[in-house]
Amino acid sequence: MVVTSAHLTLRVGEESYAVPAAIVRELVVLQPMTRVPTMPPCVRGLMNLRGTVLPVVDLARQLGLGETAITGQTCMMVVDIDASDGARSAIGVIADEMLDVVVLDDGNVEAAPAFGSRVNPRYLSGITRLDGRYAFVLDLTCILSPEEIFALGEGA
From the centroid of its chain, how far is CA 128? Predict the structure, then answer.
C-alpha cells in the first residue's frame, strides 16, 4: 500500500525544502514584530496574530544558512509543534519563499544522505525530486523544538 501525504514546498537560500502540510496551520503575511533581546538569534521576534503572541523563527538562520531578508511580501507559516513535555505550541516560521503544496508518496521520498547539504543531517527526514531538482524534507519538530532553538542560541 502506498502512503501519500501533502507537503508545503519552500525555498531557503538556493535550496528547496518540503515540510509536512499536516503541521502547517496557515500561511500569513508577516506582521510587525517585537524583538526580544534575550532570545536566540534565530528568533526574529514576537508577533501578535489575532490576539495570539507567536515567536517567529527565521528558518534560514536556524539551519545555519544566513538570515532571511524581510520584505513587504514576506510570508510566514504558522506551524504546530509538539514539545518534549507533550504541550503543543504554535510557532511562526519565515523562509525566503513559500512555493507550493505537493503530494508525495512514500516511494518518492528516500532517506536523506549524510552529505550533500549544508543543513545538519538530523534535521532532514528525507529527500525527494520536485520539478527535476532535489528537495530535502525537513523535520520541523526537531528543528523547532525549544531545546534545539536554545541550544543553538547558546552556541552563537
Answer: 17
Query: 138 forms bridges with which residues in the sheet?
Result: 124
List of domains in the chain:
4-155 (2.40.50.180)
Task: Determine contact, residues 78/95, Cβ cutoff 8 Å.
Answer: no
Closest CA to 30 of 73, 69, 59, 60: 73
Is the pLDDT reported for residue 155 higher than 70? no
Cell of 155: 552556541
With a cut of 60, say whether residue 74 has pLDDT above it. Answer: yes
CA distance 122 to 143: 9
Is 80 exceeded by the pLDDT of residue 24?
yes
List the beta bridge partners of residue 53.
48
Position of cell 532571511? 68
Distance CA 156, CA 51 (A): 31
Whether 138 contacts 95, CB under 8 Å: no
Return phi, psi of residue 5, to 5°.
-150, 145
